[in-house]
Amino acid sequence: MENGVKTVCKKNQCVGCMACVDMCPQKAISIVDTRHAFNAVIDEGKCIHCGICTNACQNNKMVTLKHPETWYQGWIEDEKLRGKSSSGGAAKAISQKFISEGGVVVSCCFKNGVFGFESAESFEDLEKFTGSKYVKSNPSGAYKKVQNLLKEGNKVLFIGLPCQVGALKTVIKENDNLYTVDLICHGTPSPKLLRDYLALHNVNMDEISSISFRYKDVFGLAQDRIPLSQPGSCDNYLLAFLCGLDYTDNCYECKYAGINRGSDITIGDSWGSDLAEEEQHRGISIMLCQTEKGERLLKSSSMKLFPVNLERAVSVNDQLRKPSTKTKKHDLFFKKYPNRSFNYATFCCLPFKCVKQRIKVFLLKTKILRGGDMNYNISITK
Fold first, then answer.
1. Residue 3: what pLDDT?
2. Using an 8 Å Cβ cutoff, are 291 and 69 in contact?
3. Which of 91-105, 154-168, 212-226 is predicted with the least confidence, judged by mean pLDDT?
């Protein structure tokens, strides 16, 4: 307890996995989002001191992580699906294979202004999961959904962030019918920051049907397939994200950022690939298999698999070595943010990069620089 407020775990270190919220029988826990940190706050008027929330919290337990047994890079065989993918379409290929064998996929989608979790049992239903999501999502309800699906005898594939997979495995013990995929994650900002940034562009997050964050190696926000900035440039939301300015505090101490993982399969971008440059432009995924059943699922999917130099892959992907670094610029961002705007706080931290992007916007608009005609009317998948 700090300042009279009782929290489930150490102050400002809540990962926002929502496991304690889901498991509490008294509905006594609420997540307080201060933009720079999450805290799971206990309402002592409702609390019966059963300890369920403490047991459900991954921060209060040792987590089991395993070194990958095998590793690959590659892409989905269907070139149309690959073309719609952020990278190589690994999540799509694995999910399609799982559903084709009667399984259920549970993952994150954007709906009614919230990045929440739902289930899918058909190829068509998988479309709602499309897109890299550079914001903290809300898995509340997902763990009980997975529990119920397993009790009914279903095979379940859960795809989420490493901390969300960690929460699931804290709540649900080993089960042969449960498969997990975690995403290589740099860190996630509070959804309040995304909401604030969209509001600067007169966009109400509750009134739009879709948000995309990137296409291949081009990063830029688009709402309902309409880019918020000049196509081909990087807006301030993605600029702050890529520079690690605005993640919640816990992300900078993430215990899942390393080569040892907690899932059956880990997927991400195969940065620094040694495959042909043309293939890199089309998108290549990296896949790490920590379990035999994970490798079986991957190999049975419609992925074209190639060897990958794991040492090189780790060297060019920081989050396979360590968490993102919390710098003084992070503190400056949140010091400037409350009294001004997202753009002002970003400019204070990254003046050179912001000016560079403004110049790029001008060059794209005047056609001096090519790339401004990028088609954003694309469904994007991981």
1. 62
2. yes
3. 212-226
